[in-house]
Every structure is written in structure tokens, then in C-alpha cells.
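Whiteboard transcription, Tuesday session. T.W. wrote the C-alpha cells on the left side:
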């Protein structure tokens, strides 16, 4: 009877330890690498200094910028993350402007600095659709939409044991997308691609080892008491 009670208490303590580890906060950083893979009109693809560009023969340039230094995040819940900046400039002065699509691939990598290790890739494809992009030399016009394609919810584990899920929405137009302003006066990439990063709180190996050690010790103590009795 005493043995059963001791084992039950040990198992309960182990479960509580596991639950505590599962709710722990996760410290991590993330980066993204974006590559333009094609366009629906004649144009030139290039990449330099972390910016992938598509330049049409009509004078419109679409730029997608990597995220390389987002900082360290300490969180136990979802984070709305910027996984790419979007810029759009044009010198096209035709009445109808330019309308075309640009395809790209965005690869997100998450790194857990404590105790260390990176996981990825979380890869999403997407298509930007541009309509009536033009300028008259003073004012600019046009619209941009985005649609992700691929696996919208992805889960991977960092080698140290922390599990992460990245959500890219559900495939709806403009999910997690902030459209850029054509010929933004600041000259910067002011649009954004987004995703939601969620650390799922799986305990790291040290916690699992502690749980196992504690359980073995409790069982050993119970057996000693049983033999003495």
C-alpha cells in the first residue's frame, strides 16, 4: 500500500514538473530570406544586400527585403512577426500603368540562443499582384495584393528541444500583408509580409532528465522501504 502511494506521488510530481516546463517562456530570434522567382511580364531579377528585386521593362521595380536582425524575443505566446519588407517604385507614365504578378519564396529560420540551436526552414511561397502602377511625375497610383501558397501551418523543433509553429494564415488574399505605397516619399520599403510565430512550450531535455531522475529516486526509496518492512 505504501509503495503504491509513493509511486503515485512520484508520478504526480513528475507530471507537475513536465507541465511547468511546458509553460516556460522561450527566448529566440528569427531571420528571413526572400527570393523572387519570376514575374508575369518581361523583367530582370536580381539580389543584392539582402534585397531581391524584379525590374520590368516598363520602369517598375518591386523589392523584397530580408529580415536579418529582428532582436531577441522572450515570450510564451504567439508573436506577430515581420518576415519581409516590400518596396515599390515606378517611372511608368502610361495612362493604364503596369499590371503584372511577381512570385517569391520566403524562408524563415528561428534560433534559440539558450542553450543554442537553429531550426528551419519554415518555407512559404507567395504571389504579389500589381494593378495600374503608374506615376505622372508628381503623384503615383496603383494597388498591390499578396497571397501565400503552400503549407500554411508548419511545426518544427530546435535541436535543443523547443517546438515552434509558424502560421502564414489560410491562403486568403492579404493575410498578414501590409501593402507598400507606390513611390513612397521616404524611399524605403514600407510594405510588409507577416506570419505568426508561436513557441509551443515543449520542455527542453534538461527538464525531461530532471523528471526521469526524480521518478527513479522516488521508486528506489519506495523499494527500500518495502524491503525493510
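and on the right, the sequence the group agreed on:
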Amino acid at each position: 500500500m505504501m509503495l503504491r502511494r509513493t509511486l503515485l506521488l512520484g508520478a504526480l510530481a513528475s507530471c507537475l514538473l513536465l507541465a511547468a516546463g511546458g509553460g516556460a517562456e522561450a527566448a529566440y530570434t528569427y531571420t528571413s530570406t526572400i527570393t523572387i522567382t519570376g514575374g508575369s511580364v518581361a523583367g530582370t531579377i536580381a539580389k543584392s544586400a539582402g534585397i531581391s528585386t524584379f525590374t520590368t521593362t516598363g520602369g517598375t521595380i518591386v523589392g523584397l527585403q530580408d529580415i536579418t536582425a529582428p532582436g531577441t524575443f522572450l515570450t510564451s505566446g504567439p508573436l506577430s512577426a515581420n518576415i519581409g519588407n516590400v518596396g515599390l517604385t515606378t517611372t511608368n507614365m502610361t495612362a493604364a500603368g503596369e499590371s503584372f504578378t511577381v512570385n517569391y519564396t520566403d524562408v524563415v529560420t528561428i534560433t534559440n540562443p539558450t542553450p543554442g540551436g537553429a531550426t528551419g526552414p519554415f518555407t512559404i511561397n507567395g504571389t504579389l499582384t500589381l494593378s495600374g502602377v503608374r506615376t505622372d511625375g508628381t503623384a503615383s497610383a496603383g494597388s498591390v495584393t499578396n497571397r501565400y501558397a503552400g503549407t500554411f501551418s508548419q511545426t518544427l523543433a530546435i535541436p535543443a528541444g523547443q517546438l515552434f509553429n509558424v502560421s502564414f494564415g489560410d491562403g486568403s488574399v492579404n493575410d498578414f500583408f501590409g501593402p507598400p505605397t507606390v513611390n513612397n516619399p521616404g524611399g524605403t520599403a514600407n510594405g510588409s509580409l507577416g506570419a505568426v510565430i508561436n513557441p509551443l512550450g515543449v520542455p527542453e531535455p534538461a527538464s525531461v532528465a530532471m523528471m526521469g531522475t526524480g521518478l527513479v529516486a522516488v521508486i528506489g526509496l519506495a523499494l527500500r522501504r518495502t524491503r525493510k518492512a
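Someone added at the bottom: The longest strand covers residues 118-135.
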